[in-house]
Amino acid sequence: MxxxxxxxxxxxxxxxxxFTVKTVDATIMSHRIRFYLFSHxxxxxxxxxxxxxxxxxxLRSTAxxxx
Length: 67
Prior knowledge:
Elements: H1 2-12, H2 18-30, H3 33-37, H4 41-63
């Protein structure tokens, strides 16, 4: 319910960028509510895939440091 209110507030403001929405997503996920969300298997799978993608990007950006 908290998340629904968050999104309702976000979508009212057209000036918010996707980056801001992602930041709010990350903020919500970092709170205790994540333990309730992560109990759903499909949600766990999606989060794991996002985490893998993030790690791959981070590794790719640091794998070849500019000399």
